[in-house]
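Cross-check.
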Amino acid sequence: MPNPLSSLSPPGAKRSLIPLGLFVLLFLGSGLYFQAQNVEYAFYQLPGHVAIIPALMLAIWLHRAPLQQSIEVLVKGAGNHNIITMCLIYLLAGAFASVATASGGVDAAVNAGLSIVPAAWLLPGLFIIAALVSTAMGTSMGTIGALAPIATGLATQANLEPALVAGVLLSGAMFGDNLSIISDTTIASTRTQGAKMSDKFKENIKIALPAAGLTLLLYTLLSSATAPVAAADFSWTGVLPYAAILVLAVMGLNVFVVLLLGIVLAALQGSVFADYQLASLGKDIATGFASVQEIFLLAMLVSGLSEFIKQQGGLSWIAGKIQSFTGKLKLAGNKAQQLAIAALAFSSNLCIANNTVAIVLSGDVAKTLAQQHQISPRRSASLLDIFACISQGLVPYGAQALLLGASFGISPWQVVSYSFYCLILLLVASGIILLRRSAGTVPGPELS
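Predicted model, tokenized:
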């Protein structure tokens, strides 16, 4: 059967991918160099939104058009309505996280979990706490930053292998990073695929929960600690804003309204039940905006680079190659194409070590494959998010592994070697693609 995408790739389509290769080379190469020099957070010494500038310059040069016209292409890509919407959601999510932290919500969520964990269930309990906190906060890095100091003390107190405890924390953090309604990856995957956040959540949880259950069973078998788990004083009211936004988002309320309500609720509960000063609300919101500055800029610039690749046929060429490969797999329905979307997200993140950026980069190709093979937007969004997060939880040069390695005083390689949830999720997600009778198909109108 002829490839329907091959005719869409003009001569020189492969050349349009060179700037993307340069971006990956600069980002990955600089990280490897600094790691060889034993520099902490080696892969973040050259930030992504700076590393992409030379790639954009090369893309403009390769475009072979007047400078003003090339700049218009860049602006068109950066100003894509999906990208701008995504960036506005980033701002509100950052503001909510900042206000919730300042008003004591994070501490309340952490200590609420610690207060109900039996000593003999230390490892599965820590996994559950990390999973709940990351699902509420929408960030694996924020979860690790909040829990790592507690987890290191628990590892010493209970005489547990530090790498094992770090792996438990990483596993729980990646669970929420993938599943949370307000995580960067959920925002990116749903916007690029045209899916509703609530639909993607429902699709994801069917895969994430079985994997989490198997992970809990494994950690229960590995847990042998008997030391008591101490929790600081906390108020259950601090957990309410997190619970509220999760419930409202799953109910399908507009994400902008959900996040705005979350900010208001976090501020009000802090002022009523804690010592949070409403006068500092504006400053905390601004701090939240600043915290997402890097991903905000990088998402826009990556979209600008993608526009050059798209206009010159690079994305169609990639989609065609993937379709040619998956067409050789003797699988029923569109399962081969679902595996292709999964592999695309996984491999993109191996190069970038940033699951949000990997999703943005591979989003257009994934959407093309989904539309060509009647894969529903919620399924393609779920696959992108799941497999990018799996990859992020397994790369030793990712921010999560680096932070945990520094916190526990161990190698990042040791951290990811105990990332059991990501390994189990890889097996569960791949198995569901292959074994599920319904292959995520959807009638044509939903794809419009």
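Residues 6-447 form one domain. The chain has one domain: 6-447. Passed to J.P. for a second look.
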